[in-house]
Specification:
Largest sheet: 8 strands, mixed, barrel
Bound molecules: ligand C2E, magnesium ion
Helix content: 40-55%
CATH class of the largest domain: Alpha Beta
CATH superfamily of the largest domain: EAL domain
Number of strands: 16
Strand order of the largest sheet: 8-9-11-12-13-14-15-16
Structural class: alpha/beta
Shape: elongated
Number of helices: 18
Number of domains: 3
Strand content: 15-25%
CATH architecture of the largest domain: Alpha-Beta Barrel
Distance between the termini: 163 Å
Radius of gyration: 41 Å
CATH topology of the largest domain: TIM Barrel
Length: about 525
C-alpha cells in the first residue's frame, strides 16, 4: 500500500514537474516577456521555441502578434515624426509670418519693436548709444501710381536688398510697411556715428534701380532719433524718428535730419494743415492768383499761370510750397486740381465777357491725376459748360512725371492734347528726364526752372544751360518759358537769346484776376 502511495506521489511530483516545465514555464516566460516589452517599449524581441505542440503554436502566434504590434508601432513612430516635423515647419512659418515682412523678407514692425526693447534694456545697463533711422522713399507714391503696384513692389524688394548690404552685424533693418524702412543701430560710440550710416544709405541710392522695364532714380529721406536723448521708450523713439524724417523731406530729396525738440511743434502744425485742408474747398478758403508772362517777340501779355492760394481762418495764409506736398501725400490734391480747373475755366469765361478774348491760362496739375480718366472727363465737361476754346488752357505737369511715366500717363496726356488743350513741362531741369522722353511727349511748352535764372548773370554754367535749353526747345518745336526772372539783366539776356516767354517778379507777382485786365491792355 505504502509502495503504491509512494509511487503515486512520485508520479504526481514528476507529472507536476513535467507540467511546470512544459506549461507553466513557457507561460511565465511569456508574462515576463510582456512585462519587459511594456517596460522597455521594445517590440523587437521575440520568444524562441522549438516545440511543435500547442505551447509551441501559442508562442509562434504570440510572436506573430508582436510582429503586428511592432509594425503598428513603427507606423505610429513614423507618423509621430512626420507630425512633429509638420508642427516644427508650421511653427517656423508662423514665426516668419508674425516677425518678417512677406514682400522683402526683412523683420517687420513687431520684430523691430521686440529688438528695440531688448536694445533699450541693454543700453540702459551699459550706457551705450542707440540710433533709429527712419527712412521713407521720396515720391514713391508717384512711382507706384504711374508704374503700377507690381513695379512698386519690385522697387521695394531692390531697396530692401540694398539696405541689407549696408547693415553691419548687429544692426536691424526692418520694413514698417509701405515705403517705410527702419535701421536700428546699436553700440554706437556717439550719436554722430548714425549720420555716417545715413550718408552711406543716401549715397547707395545714387545708383539707379533697374527694374524689369524701367530704370529709376530714387532717393530716400531719413529721420534719426537717439536713445536716450530723444526718448526713453520704443514708441517715442519711433515717433520722433518719423517726425525728423518729415523735416528731412522738407530740406529736399535725399537728405537726413536728427530729431530736435522744436520738431514736435512743427509736426503739430503739419497735422493742423492736413486737418484743415480737408474742408478747405467746402469752406471756400482757396482762391487763384494769376501771374502774367510776357512774350519777348512783341512784349504782349497773353499768357498767365494760375497759382493757388489758401487762407484759413485759424492758420492764416499758407503757401502752396507747404500745403501742396501735404495735399499730394493725402490724395486731397485730386479734388484741389479739379477745383482749380473749374475756377480757371470760369475765369476765362469772365475775362471773355470783359473783352479779354485770347488769353491762355496755365494750370498746375499733380502727377497722380494722369493715371485715371477723372481729370480728362472733368476737363471736357468744364470746357463745354463754360464754352471755352481748349487752346486757351495749358496743363502744367512737373518734369518728374516724364521720368516715372507709364503708358497710362502718356495716354491721358495724348487725350488732353487731342482735346485741343496745351501741355507744358514745368520745373524743367530739376528732374532727370532724358531727351528721349521729351521727344516722345506731346508737349507744347518747356518751363525752365527758376534755379537756372537766379544766378544767371554770375554763372557761366547757368548761361550755358539757358542757351542750350532755348535751342533744345526750339528744335523740338516747343516754346520756352523762363521762370523766376527778377532783374532787367536777366530779362535782357533771355530776350537776346530768344527765350519766348518771361515770367517773374520783375514783370509782376501773381495778381488778382481783375488786375490781369490792366496788364493785357
Ligand atoms: P510753379 O508751378 O513752378 O510756380 C512758380 C512759382 O514761382 C510760384 O510759387 C510763383 O509765385 C513763384 N515765382 C514766380 N515768379 C518768381 C520770381 O521772380 N522769383 C521767385 N523767387 N519766385 C517766383 P507759388 O505760387 O508759391 O507756387 C509754388 C508751387 O506750388 C508751384 O510751382 C506749383 O508747383 C505749386 N502750385 C501752385 N499752384 C498750384 C495748383 O493750383 N495746383 C498744383 N497741383 N500745384 C500748384
Ligand atoms: Mg507751374
Ligand atoms: Mg515751375
Amino acid at each position: 500500500m505504502l509502495g503504491i502511495l509512494a509511487f503515486g506521489v512520485l508520479t504526481i511530483v514528476i507529472a507536476a514537474k513535467y507540467f511546470k516545465k512544459s506549461l507553466t514555464y513557457p507561460i511565465r516566460r511569456m508574462v515576463r516577456h510582456i512585462q519587459t516589452i511594456y517596460r522597455t517599449q521594445n517590440f523587437e524581441r521575440r520568444l524562441r521555441s522549438k516545440r511543435d505542440d500547442e505551447v509551441g503554436r501559442l508562442i509562434m502566434e504570440f510572436n506573430q502578434m508582436l510582429d503586428t504590434v511592432q509594425e503598428r508601432e513603427n507606423e505610429l513612430t513614423l507618423h509621430g515624426k512626420q507630425l512633429q516635423r509638420l508642427v516644427e515647419v508650421r511653427t517656423e512659418q508662423l514665426y516668419q509670418k508674425a516677425h518678417f515682412d512677406s514682400l522683402t523678407g526683412l523683420p517687420n514692425r513687431y520684430l523691430l519693436v521686440d529688438r528695440l526693447h531688448q536694445a533699450i534694456s541693454k543700453s540702459a545697463r551699459t550706457n551705450e548709444v542707440l540710433a533709429l533711422l527712419f527712412l521713407d522713399l521720396d515720391r514713391f507714391k508717384v512711382i507706384n501710381d504711374n508704374l503700377g503696384h507690381q513695379n512698386g513692389d519690385l522697387l521695394l524688394k531692390e531697396v530692401a536688398k540694398r539696405l541689407s548690404k549696408i547693415a553691419r552685424e548687429g544692426d536691424t533693418v526692418a520694413r514698417l510697411g509701405g515705403d517705410e524702412f527702419v535701421f536700428l543701430l546699436e553700440n554706437l560710440n556717439n550719436p554722430q556715428d548714425a549720420s555716417k550710416t545715413a550718408r552711406r544709405i543716401i549715397d547707395s541710392f545714387k545708383i539707379p534701380f533697374h527694374l524689369q522695364d524701367h530704370i529709376l532714380h530714387v532717393s530716400t529721406s531719413i529721420g534719426i532719433s537717439i536713445y536716450p536723448a530723444d526718448g526713453k521708450d520704443d514708441k517715442i523713439l519711433l515717433k520722433n524718428a518719423d517726425i525728423s524724417m518729415y523735416h528731412a523731406k522738407e530740406k529736399g530729396p535725399g537728405q537726413f535730419s536728427f530729431y530736435t525738440h522744436d520738431m514736435n511743434k512743427s509736426s503739430l502744425e503739419r497735422l493742423a494743415i492736413e486737418t484743415n485742408l480737408r474742408s478747405a474747398i467746402d469752406n471756400n478758403e482757396f482762391y487763384l492768383l494769376y501771374q502774367p508772362q510776357m512774350r519777348t517777340k512783341d512784349n504782349q501779355y497773353k499768357n498767365v499761370e494760375a497759382l493757388l492760394r489758401w487762407k484759413n481762418p485759424q492758420i492764416g495764409d499758407i503757401s502752396p510750397g507747404v500745403f501742396i506736398p501735404i495735399a499730394e501725400e493725402t490724395a486731397i490734391i485730386n479734388q484741389i486740381d479739379l477745383w482749380v480747373i473749374t475756377q480757371a475755366c470760369k475765369q476765362i469765361k469772365t475775362w471773355k465777357e470783359q473783352g479779354l478774348k485770347d488769353i491762355t491760362v496755365a494750370v498746375n496739375i499733380s502727377a497722380g491725376q494722369l493715371i485715371s480718366d477723372t481729370l480728362l472727363e472733368h476737363l471736357k465737361r468744364q470746357l463745354m459748360i463754360y464754352q471755352i476754346n481748349p487752346a486757351q488752357l495749358e496743363i502744367e505737369i512737373t518734369e518728374a512725371v516724364f521720368v516715372e511715366h507709364s503708358a497710362r500717363t502718356i495716354k491721358t496726356l495724348e487725350s488732353i492734347k487731342k482735346l485741343g488743350a496745351r501741355i507744358a513741362i514745368d520745373d524743367f531741369g530739376t528732374g532727370y528726364s532724358s531727351l528721349q522722353y521729351i521727344q516722345n511727349f506731346p508737349a507744347d511748352t518747356l518751363k525752365l526752372d527758376g534755379m537756372f535764372i537766379r544766378n544767371l548773370m554770375e554763372s557761366k554754367a547757368s548761361q550755358g544751360i539757358v542757351r542750350s535749353t532755348i535751342i533744345l526747345a526750339h528744335s523740338l518745336g516747343l516754346e520756352l518759358v523762363a521762370e523766376g526772372v527778377e532783374t532787367q539783366e536777366q530779362l535782357d539776356y533771355l530776350t537776346h537769346h530768344q527765350c519766348d516767354l518771361i515770367q517773374g517778379f520783375l514783370l509782376s507777382k501773381p495778381i488778382k484776376p481783375e488786375e490781369i485786365i490792366v496788364f493785357t491792355q
